[in-house]
Amino acid sequence: MLLDFIQAYAARLATQLPSPKSRADWLTRAAEVTARLRRSLGLDRLEPHRTLLSAQVVGTLSRIGYSIEKVIYETLPDLWVAAHVYIPDDLRTPAPAVLFAPGHWMENGKLEPDIQVCCANLALRGFVVLVYDPIGQGERLGDWMEHGHLEPLLVGVSQAGLMVWESMRALDYLLSRPDVDKARVGMTGASGGGLNTFYTSALDARIGVSVPVCFVTTFYQMMTAERDRNWEDGVDLCNQVPEVMAYAEMSDIVGLFAPKPLCLIAAQHDWMFPIAGTRVVYQRLQALYRFWEAEQNVQLVEVDDEHGYTQPMREAMYGWMMRWLQGKGNGEPSPERRCDLLPTPYPSALTYIAPPERDDLPILRHRDEYPRENPGWCFPSGHSPSCGAAITRLTQHIATELPMPALPDAATWPAQRVELLSRTRALLGRMPTGHPLVKDRTYNQVLYDGLFAERVVFESEPGIELPAVFLAPAEWQRHFPTVIYVDEWGKQVGIETGIVDALLQAGLAVLAVDVRGVGETAASDFEAATNALMSDRPLFGQRVWDVLRAVDYLWRRIYIGVQIDKGRIGCLGRGLGGLWCLHAAALDERLAAAALWETPISYHDLIVERPGFPPSAYLFDALHHCDLPQVMALIAPRALLIADPVDGMRAPLTESTHMAKLEWPRHVYAQVFARPHTWQVQTTPAGTPASVLSSWLKEQLSSLAA
């Protein structure tokens, strides 16, 4: 259900994008797309942390017809790159240059044979070529998680943004060389390198010729192709650029390169980036290039092949680069030459590229013997300093530099509250307008041993139906205070662990709800969250909306039976569910009390290299909007309980730690409203018992009149 919904929403977004009718229309739209794309990637967030490259040539290798300089340089603090610069023999300087961005050739990186062949052939044709190991590849290979850093999202930086930044810094180095003609620079790469080429070419004016390979299609086609594959096993975040589908299609982004020479190369049997979408993009590109009467500057080359950077693809790229950077030929494919390649650290049987053959068993059973020392290594051990640790430290540094909003007083709080509410709503993304009638169905109703129970399903919005259980003491002359229970792992956990029973024993009614993608409607959090990340409706915000619709369901319930006291509705959320309840209570004053259980209390705590919370917790640019303590303050003076707060690894926080982090709500409750007793932090070494949580909710909901 959830993946269907997100996919349908993506298709709808694509139909709402403007279609320019003239060059003037396009230039206006291009300016908007450029600004929003830079924000989605996080380039402006990274710019203040630009380092000196400190480039060093650490060795030179002589090959037949060219040489390779081994270079290291620093792109961001402690983020060191290993690169090769291919230099033709008898070089006529300044020469045209090509930046090659490797795709996900993980183990060998720049030393992968296909990449070496490509760079060497360009050198043999008179180009200076720079190829570097991307984050988490080649000499920078730490582990696969280095392609899935969630923590930079909190400060407005995406994984794709880090990739583009590194290509821009590679251009900084390449263009600093006296042997390179700054006016004749091209870029290419396949798969993840095609992605890198696609975005970097769109935003860096120094690139004069672009050849993205096996990437360009439509965003919808790409998402659909990856459906139920969990985006490369729930790790890789390179494709999912935040919010991009809300304002652009791939044709808009690659169209930013117009009218410069652009060649799209695609495989007809590429399951990841379907050729049907590539053809749509190319058709739209032709219309954009027509605004400049430059249709000859853009072409699509289709190859009868699968995903990769195969010889026919490379030959098409050589011809295109030669035509536009050297003035040679007409852009037709140029036959590939045999090259003097370096050995690889890993045999192909041990790499990510393709499944091994049966004959590879002897190699597979000696994996520990690899990688083998390689003359192409730039770092003595073949390992750069850790990329992952550097990215986490950089994120922490950006976060700590953000200004903390001033604590309010009674006079300034109303205006500050309006601003914080606006920021919170913006962070949660677009939500359906209004509160339409809740459509609900009761599937079963049971009276047993003094308990009234219903199994219900209600519609949160078209396409999303939420299963829930409503339980209450079976009494017919009372209106019951009611608690909405939302658990990160689903309502069944609340039933099994006894918290629902404890609430009932306290004389409270309970609506235990599975928000979308949880419990009975479970879906991969990684796939759903990162699909939604590309739209203007993050999964976190969608789930907050589900909690708000649970309030709507209770609000309109008027059956003759167990009655709900609609002035005494509270919510209790566990784990990530606590954050959904927190934001729902901040937005909806019908929630008279909120209890957060085993929940983070600051986005700063989620800035860890190996987080304990799922991707949906990582809202893009959250810390530039507001932190969780400010959201807590929005609930004041209504009742708020924070039970057993945890850090980003789900480890309990000490009292001294949480006291320092919760200054904002403590101040607002005590100083602005003089109601310090309506909020509380509860911690016990063994965890807060369910009976304590239920007693607190009963007390707060029962004392509202006072």
Describe this structure in words.
With 706 residues, this protein is α/β, with parallel strands linked by helices. Helices cover 36% and strands 20% of the residues. Strands 1-2-3-5-4-6-7-8-9 form a nine-stranded mixed β-sheet, sandwiched between helices. A nine-stranded mixed β-sheet has the order 10-11-12-14-13-15-16-17-18, sandwiched between helices. The longest helix is centred in the N-terminal third of the chain and has 19 residues, at 23-41. The chain starts with a helix and ends with a helix.
Write the layout of secondary structure elements.
Elements: H1 2-15, H2 23-41, H3 43-46, E1 56-63, E2 66-76, E3 79-88, E4 95-100, H4 113-124, E5 128-132, H5 159-176, E6 180-190, H6 192-203, E7 209-213, H7 219-225, H8 230-235, H9 250-255, E8 262-267, H10 275-290, E9 298-303, H11 311-326, H12 361-364, H13 387-400, H14 413-428, E10 440-448, E11 451-461, E12 464-473, E13 479-487, H15 491-497, H16 499-505, E14 509-513, H17 525-533, H18 539-556, E15 563-574, H19 576-587, E16 591-597, H20 628-633, E17 639-643, H21 655-661, H22 663-672, E18 679-682, H23 690-702
Parallel strand pairs: 4-5, 4-6, 6-7, 7-8, 8-9, 13-14, 13-15, 15-16, 16-17, 17-18
Antiparallel strand pairs: 1-2, 2-3, 3-5, 10-11, 11-12, 12-14
